[in-house]
Structure formats: C-alpha cells, structure tokens
Specification:
The structure holds two protein chains of two kinds.
Chain A (H helix, E strand, L loop, with lengths): L4 E3 L2 E4 L5 E6 L6 E8 L3 E9 L2 E5 L6 E5 L5 E5 L8 E8 L7 E2 L3 E5 L1
Parallel strand pairs in A: 2-11
Antiparallel strand pairs in A: 1-3, 3-8, 4-5, 4-9, 5-6, 7-8, 9-10, 9-11
Chain B lengths: L3 E4 L2 E5 L4 E7 L5 E7 L5 E7 L2 E5 L2 E6 L4 E6 L8 E11 L3 E6 L3 E6 L1
Parallel strand pairs in B: 2-11
Antiparallel strand pairs in B: 1-3, 3-8, 4-5, 4-9, 6-7, 7-8, 9-10, 9-11
Classes of the chains: A mainly beta, B mainly beta.
C-alpha cells in the first residue's frame, strides 16, 4: 500500500462529458503529480503541484485542469471528453520533488 | 529522440536466470527512477538513484553518470517478477518544478 488514494477506481462515461478524479497523497507529502497512461502513448506527465501551487506542466490538454487544495488532496478535471481520453490516470506524491514518488492505484477512465 | 530510452522492449527468461534491463537518458536529469507495473496496472517505485548503485533484495540498480546509462538487474529471477519495468528520469527546474519522463517500458516474462 503506497498510501496514495485515488478515487474512483473505474469511471465510464460518454463523449462530451466532464469528470473529476480525486487523489489523496501520502501523509506528509507536499508534492502531487498527475500522469496519463494510454495504450498508444505510454506514461506521460501531466502536471505537478507543490503545497497548493502549480509547479510544472507537461502534456496537459487545455480541456484538462487540476488543483491542489489546502488539505493537500488534488483533483484532476477532464472536460469535453473524447474517445482518446480513455486511459489510466495515476496520481503520485512525494515529500518534495527530489524524493521518490509513491503512486496510487490509478483511475481507469473509459469513454464510450 | 525520446529523452529516456529502454531496451529491450520485451524479455523472456527462465526461472533462475540473471536479468538485465538497460536505460539511456539525455543530459540534465537530477535522478533516475526504476518503476514496476504489474498486470493489474499498479505502479511501484523500485529505486531512485542519482549515482552509484542500490540494492533491494534480488534487485540491483546502477547508474553511470558519465555514460548517461542505468541498468536494472534481477538475480535468481522468479515468475512473480513478471511485470513491466519502466525507467524514468527526473528533470528539476527551479522555476518550473520537476517532471518525470518515462521510457517505453520493458515487458518481462519469467517462465517456471
């Protein structure tokens, strides 16, 4: 058990819809990272937050947004969903960017 | 050219064999990670290293900074080692946080 909790585990929705994925980091971890793993693109970094502030952006689409709340949990919002957004979305956390990251079990998003 | 490249893509071994997975990266990483992803999808961080060698049980990770190369070795391999092994580099920037860039992964199958 990594200590990182992601909900929901599975999400099935339709094109055009909006969903919110939630992540609770390990106790004491200030950094939260979001990653997308699709069949054709592998694992890709989306965005990083540190203590409530956005610190780094990767290949995150404009239709996607994220935030980290004062209690350090984070949410990834995906809107105007397309078939290609079907993927596993992972959250990871670390004490700071120079420390190992601990991964949640992921949210499997299926767009029908 | 990807910033992180792994080889081989697929590896099949017999139980008990010594296994090596290789990773090459471009200049500028602050740390190199080895991750393990099981068929269920969960990701476990095995090692994070910036120099030298680390060992955990039957797993050994090494990094050569001059050659920008890392290896993951598994001694006395076992069928339960069957998984995808992913190499990732951390790029840290003071003004833009840190991000992980992933290799494409090595699918390891260990037969009894």
């Amino acid at each position: 058990d990594s200590g990182v909790t992601q909900t929901p585990k599975h999400l099935i929705t339709a094109t055009g819809q909006r969903v919110t994925l939630r992540c609770s980091p390990r106790s004491g971890d200030l950094s939260v990272y979001w990653y997308q793993q699709s069949l054709d693109q592998g694992l890709q970094f989306l965005i990083q937050y540190y203590n409530g502030e956005e610190r780094a952006k990767g290949n995150i689409l404009e239709r996607f947004s994220a935030q980290q709340f004062p209690d350090l949990h984070s949410e990834l919002n995906l809107s105007s969903l397309e078939l290609g957004d079907s993927a596993l979305y992972f959250c990871a956390s670390s004490v700071d960017p120079d420390q190992p990251q601990h991964f949640g079990d992921g949210t499997r998003l299926s767009i029908l | 050219k990807n910033e992180v490249e792994q080889s081989p893509q697929n590896l099949t071994a017999q139980e008990g064999e010594f296994i090596t997975i290789n990773c090459s990266y471009s200049v500028g990483i602050s740390a190199l990670h080895w991750l393990q992803q099981h068929p269920g999808g969960g990701i476990v961080s095995l090692f994070m290293l910036s120099s030298g060698k680390k060992k955990h049980g039957r797993l050994i990770a090494t990094i050569n900074i001059q050659e920008k190369h890392s290896s993951l070795h598994i001694t006395a391999s076992h069928p339960r080692d069957s998984a995808v092994y992913i190499c990732a580099g951390t790029w840290v920037r003071e003004t833009s946080g840190s991000r992980l860039t992933f290799g494409e992964g090595t699918q390891l199958t260990v037969n009894p």
